[in-house]
Amino acid sequence: MWMLSAGVRPYNNKSHDSQLIQEICSGLRPSVISGTPPAFARLMLQCLDADPSKRPTASQLYEWLGNWVTAICDDPETKFVNLEKLNLRNLPCHENAIYFSHQLVSQI
What we know:
The chain contains four helices and no strands. By secondary structure, the chain is mainly alpha-helical. It comes from Rhizophagus irregularis (strain DAOM 197198w).
């Protein structure tokens, strides 16, 4: 969600290592970027809540996103300002940033 808002991958300027894992576990979250639709920002922050019981369920996300996509054409507040920047093939990132699934055993 943050990538849609910012136009870049999250933590693209940091090594994806045990220090980043610890920072995220200690509460590090990406901040809301200027130009993010307010309703989307609220949902993103809710999804990033440290307490899993406060995060929306998959069915709640499905319903919310379905309603939001329907409204996107009618309301300028639902549009992303930074989305045109998003080009995953050419995004610069830290040489130790990892954006695919892998075991964390070596990191922990």
